[in-house]
Each structure stands twice: as structure tokens, then as C-alpha cells.
Amino acid sequence: MSDHQFRNDLIGFIPPLRAFAISLTGKVDRADDLVQETLLKAWANRESFEPGTKLKAWLFTILRNEFYTVFRKRKREVEDADGIIAANVGVHPEQDGHMDLTDMQQALGQLPVDQREALLLVSASDMSYEEAAVICGVAVGTIKSRVNRARARLGELLHLNEASEFGPEPEVKAALMPKTGHG
């Protein structure tokens, strides 16, 4: 594969890499740093990429490994796991969608890293269980189990009991429903 083609392929994978990185780190600036480091490592090691294999899986593996490297280095930093510091610094969003997203991000942050990673690879990054298993270096059954446990835990954390709880609030649904009858 030529350098030009490799470069173009790398650029094409920036959006899914960034989405996965944001989901792992929970912070856009750290995610951008993680993606940048991933791209630099991929470029520096482009000769080791085997044409005919999946570039996406190779890049996600580099990103995942870099995330764990950074994660180990940052163990000594002060974390804001419950969001108390961030809550006092920022302005709270006013729209329900933003609130739901914030709730989801906080719930994702409470999942064990291996479960969050498996869930994001399969659900958010549109990878098969098999691809996710290769990236994580575990059996397919392990990925399926992690995804299942992650989904169940998210449901608990977000207090969701059934699928009908997703979407607009009942009042909004009622306002959006077409009127029937003449009453």
C-alpha cells in the first residue's frame, strides 16, 4: 500500500477513532490527544501493517493500547469520578437531550473499563463481536458477556426497566401525537 493511500485511509478512520476515544476517556481534549497519538504511531509503524487485514481493527488496537498506557500513567492524577469538581466549574445544560447524554456519559464512566470498552466497540463503533474480541485479545464469548453485563449495568444506573423508557418524556410524546377524533 502506498503512503498516499495509507494516509487517506487513516484520515477516513479519524471520526470512529475519535468517537471511541471520547467514549473511553470521557474528555474531548484527552480523546483528541489519544487519536493524535494513535495516528502518529500508526504512521510511524505503517510498514508493519499487513495489507489485506483490517486497518480499522489495527487502528482501534493501537488506540486501545495507548489508552491503557496513558491510563496507567494518570493513576496518580486527581480524578473527578463523581463529577463534583466539574459540576462546580461548568454550566449545566438546559435541554433534556443534553441531560440524557450527561447521564449516559456518567453511567458509562461507572462501568469497569473492560465492559465499557466492549460495549463501545460493539454498539457505538459498529464492530462485530469477533472484531471486538480480536482488538481486546479475548474470546468472542468474553466480549458477549462483557457487553451483556455492561448493558444490564447501564440499565440499572440509568434506572431503565423497559425499552419504552427511551425517547421523549410522556408529555412531549403526547404533544407530538396526532389528534384523533373531533373532541
Rg, rounded, reads 20 Å
How does the helix and strand content classify structurally? mainly alpha
> How many helical elements?
10
Q: Tell me the β content.
A: under 5%
Strand/helix succession: HHHHHHHHHH
What name does CATH use for the topology of the largest domain? Arc Repressor Mutant, subunit A
Briefly, what CATH class of the largest domain? Mainly Alpha
Shape: globular
Q: Give the averaged pLDDT, no decimals.
A: 80
User: What is the assigned CATH homologous superfamily of the largest domain?
Assistant: Winged helix-like DNA-binding domain superfamily/Winged helix DNA-binding domain
N-end to C-end Cα span: 68 Å
Overall tally of structural domains: 2
What is the helix fraction of residues, given as a range? 55-70%
- Number of DSSP-assigned strands: 0
List low-confidence stretches: none
Q: What is the name of the CATH architecture of the largest domain?
A: Orthogonal Bundle
How is the biggest beta sheet arranged? Answer: none
Protein name: RNA polymerase sigma factor
Pfam families: Sigma70_r2, Sigma70_r4_2
Family: Belongs to the sigma-70 factor family. ECF subfamily.
GO molecular function: DNA binding; sigma factor activity
Structure description:
By secondary structure, the chain is mostly helical. The chain folds into two domains: 1-75, Rna Polymerase Sigma Factor, Chain: A (Orthogonal Bundle); 95-183, Arc Repressor Mutant, subunit A (Orthogonal Bundle). Helices cover 68% and strands 0% of the residues. The protein is built from ten helices and no strands. The model has no long low-confidence stretch (mean pLDDT 80).
